[in-house]
């Protein structure tokens, strides 16, 4: 029983971070219908700037720089590349982000060289034991931060001008434009937010508690696991992203123990495949209708 | 107006004609020469003045640190042996290529380097060695892989300098039992990277477990997994008394950290590659005290005359921080030197002659950089002796010995997979 | 927005192929024949290492032709290509493997038959995925197909009797046709003083396979099948109205594309002389490979068969060529932390190529090529003149 509880704790802790990543996918998708394959490289980029600036700015300052630079990179990608390819459709733009992902990832990995810097100085590897269950401090902080950010996001989404504009745009782009909503601003903000979420997520990922390794190509692989999280929740559902993240975390933890560890990585993708076969738009996604 | 396709067609046809007639084909010319003045027969990579050995290494991929260390060790050896007059009246030259730990790159580089060399003093990377297995067989080229899996020993041209992962595990378990850290009938966990490396380590622990009625909980992982929290959680539930590791250094760090975090605190036993001094600077550093490392080649800072000699020469020649690859690379060179001398005595420096000399090598000495090696038994590891070491931030190179070279009785009886 | 998704963002319009007439056609044919002649003569001049590199490009070419039909012609985004490569490689090795091996399973078939069998197996598995694929659209399909790569990773590791396991892998039987081995064995052949050994023989084998793959694909794309794929890609509802069986067209595209990937897989196993399943999601049959193939077809121009070959030349050829040149010229001598490597430079090049293609020339290199030739050739505006 203790084993089971511990696994659930492990799974939820990681799921919180997957939710942050998945939310990033969803925000961009809702605003632009583009699936951002470069999300993993945003994560790496933010982490890399933390590594570079940590010496001079200290951990807190460097973390802020990392979050900000991931956000700005995302913004730059949108403004300088995607916005200029207006003629291309969403699928082509998704392919473009694959190309970007390759470039940014290879360059960051090259710059990291052989070092595997850990980013979780403040709380890493200092677990708390409660009644036979170990709580990893990184997971706890990640859960708290995710809860705050996700709540803030939901509130902004519902009540702020940006949220209203974005929902309008997601409903019907042309009508939104007619209502005077500036599509470019909504889109740019969405990328900015997604980049910032990636920058936050990396602070938890590149830790002993979460990934067991510092910033590296592996960090990018982990970001890849947020894909099934976003997809199985439904790419256009923010609530789905949160649920999807937690499902992926739990599926990974439980299948590692009760099926086999080497199956666990495939397990999250298979869960996604099953969900998609039953509900082609994910658990909470909007059903598609065909237009003739 | 000439259209582009027309022009293209004309060009192509013209160049085809040119190519076919004008330039000579690549044919003609190679093959082994006859005996030289001393009556020594020679083959690929051997001229009257030089013996060329190949180095297929990783200078740019995931194992670039290790690759660089081994290559520098190889170079130091070549310098030393040439200063001492070379082998068979010939100077040793190294031909180095970098495959970046990619099997596909290695596969194209191999046909380029193969005709120029007598054999390979270094072939790094188990995917590379696996991809080139057939080539080594058909070209009869002796190669020293920087991989210590006894699965490789079905290839008679493979020269493993040191013992193999399976034997390391057997010796290591006997050490744990000798120290009363495990007992007959216990349950132990073994986390291993699926592949040549991990499977071979697992083979060893299963052998030992069979002799001592241990239950082994096996957990297969891949080389890119780094978070092993869920695995250690499960092993804790199974009540393991020790965890064996045939993993990469970051994975070792994860297991050590979780071992402590969950309050499990069992001893950890790992093969040679599980440890990297960088772990001592990671968040897992404080949890490494439970780790025991078994190895047959010494670390850079070993307290041995020869190791100190190599270390001093290294510091004089290179600026990069050193690693265990340096003394190992030097030791492989020493073994190659022994084999080449034997081939020279046999007056046969052809590939066949070198392979024959390897089989006749029963005690290649490296002045204890590696235990004495015997290559005469097909399929069997060349030695079964290991050291045990533990991480120690105070020691140069990050580890200190806790037990000098020894061979467990269980290791002596062990039959390697391709042992005849 | 759901409507917009359903509209399904077809890849850039690839004009449906029509036949040109007269001089242009003959010139084209002549150019292809000349190219083939040069390729056939290369083994006489190129060293084995370069032949090996060329064969790697041909593997890429065959796989990319298959993918470009699926993604470009039928509009089905797939990241599962690497999985079908693994199926083909495993299929060939199992079918041709010795039947009496106690460690691994084999059927002892003739290698020629095994090759056909492996291609068919891949096609059938592609067909099996079709019902799932049929329900998904666009990017959902792309990511769903990614799960096949992970499935392949798991099966490759666990089905050791078939794949030999990641520990040792297993050796595929050397290819043989009517008793003639494509290895160093068999009769000694020499032409103009050049001994024809494994590298040279395999070159011709791969060249023939690539040529056949190319011609079949061109036939399919120009025929009724191709028309139905493009109809489905452009608008499913309209295609149905036109009498195209959408489900069947999609499933067919998946099967054909998988068959091509299967063939590329067989070639991969023969090229490496070993079948070795990957230890992680990056490897010979990993995500990186799926992405590389996608890069080839995007760079070459979605839907263009010759474009796929050019894409393969860039994505598969560049790293190999750079590695060989670096050995020749002593490039990339720098080592340590942040050295530039042939693989790295190639990644930059193809990453950038994807970005540039999507931004500036959604038709890829094929469109550029078309524009150049049509400008030179004729009066036809490019929209009408096809691949």
Automatic annotation (TrEMBL), chain A:
Main location: membrane
Recorded topology in the membrane: Multi-pass membrane protein
UniProt keyword list: Amino-acid transport, Cell membrane, Membrane, Transmembrane, Transmembrane helix, Transport
Origin superkingdom: Bacteria
Subcellular localization, as worded in the UniProt entry: Cell membrane
Similarity-based family: Belongs to the binding-protein-dependent transport system permease family. LivHM subfamily.
Name this protein carries in UniProt: Branched-chain amino acid transport system permease protein
UniProtKB/TrEMBL annotation, chain B:
Signal among keywords: yes
Keyword list, A-Z: Signal
Annotated signal peptide: 1-21
Entries under InterPro entries matching the protein: Leu-bd, Peripla_BP_I
Coiled-coil features, chain-numbered ranges: none
Domain Leucine-binding protein: 51-392
Record-stated family: Belongs to the leucine-binding protein family.
Native organism: Actinokineospora iranica
Keyword match Manganese: no
Protein name (record): ABC-type branched-chain amino acid transport system, substrate-binding protein
SUPFAM superfamilies associated with the record: Periplasmic binding protein-like I
From TrEMBL, chain C:
Signal sequence residues: none
Cited InterPro entries: ABC_transp_permease, LivM-like
Any matching Pfam family: BPD_transp_2
Lineage top rank: taxon: Bacteria
Region feature Disordered, mapped onto this chain: 1-20
Cell compartments where the protein resides: Cell membrane
Membrane topology annotation: Multi-pass membrane protein
Keywords: Cell membrane, Membrane, Transmembrane, Transmembrane helix
Annotated transmembrane regions: 30-50, 56-72, 79-99, 111-132, 139-156, 203-221, 251-272, 284-302, 309-327, 347-369
Primary site of residence: membrane
The name this protein goes by in its record: Amino acid/amide ABC transporter membrane protein 2, HAAT family
Source organism per UniProt: Actinokineospora iranica
